[in-house]
Amino acid sequence: SSLEKSGYTHKGEWNVPLKCGFTKRGDVDVNLHVFFDENHPEIELNLLFRDYLREHPDARDEYAATKVRILQDDAAQERVGTLAFPVYTLKKREFIYGILNKVGFDRLRVLKCTADEEWAAAKDFRKKHFFFKLGTADPQSSTLNSPGHEHWLLYKGTEIIGYSHVQLLPKSRVRVHVVMLSDEYRRLNNDSFSSYFFKVIVKWIRFNGAKIVYNAEDSFALL
Predict the structure, then answer these.
(1) Distance in angstroms (rounded) separating the CA atoms of residues 165 and 153
(2) Helix axes 93-102, 57-71, angle to 10 degrees
(3) pTM (predicted TM-score)
(4) Which of 60, 62, 92, 196 could bridge across to 53 with cysteines, CB 3.0–4.6 Å?
(5) Contacts of 4 (CB under 8 A, 6+ apart)
(6) Which pLDDT tens digit goes with each residue over 50-109?
């Protein structure tokens, strides 16, 4: 790509569907985030957080001190999980989400599981909304740590309200095993939440030149 010809290294989408990350190291280090949807919720999220720090110097200084404190831990640069995320990045979430709650950010957004609390939420969804109802243990628990299996979460602001299991198959095929909402949002009887979630997954699949597999053996369910 033109960015790579300019010295940028493509780092993938990290944990945000429909986004690509690039880095460039030199006299000035650059981390570049490229979004493929001009209305992507993460754009608004980042701008709101930036503007809050600009308008509140105390919060800005606290954030800086938080990052320094995290980096003092020898494990801060270790990478964890199937997406190999730095511990440093994950530990900043609590502060960032606290600010987002203060400014009332509540847009629907989709992320892939990375932080411990996200994996815990994924396991809880699978237990309460699917396998528990079948009266059996999770027969696919190994997929939580397996390459080729991705576990996605639907957020409303900083609140996790939905879960999906997405499997990457050979020959650019993708199987969506389940899309589900929390009990609270299912009781609202509002299909817009699950519909939004599924549309983002489908858009991501098409963007990557893949296709959804549907056949008699599929376990896909929209809950």
Answers:
(1) 9
(2) 160
(3) 0.89
(4) 60
(5) 10, 22
(6) 999 999 999 999 999 999 888 887 776 767 665 556 777 778 899 999 999 999 999 999
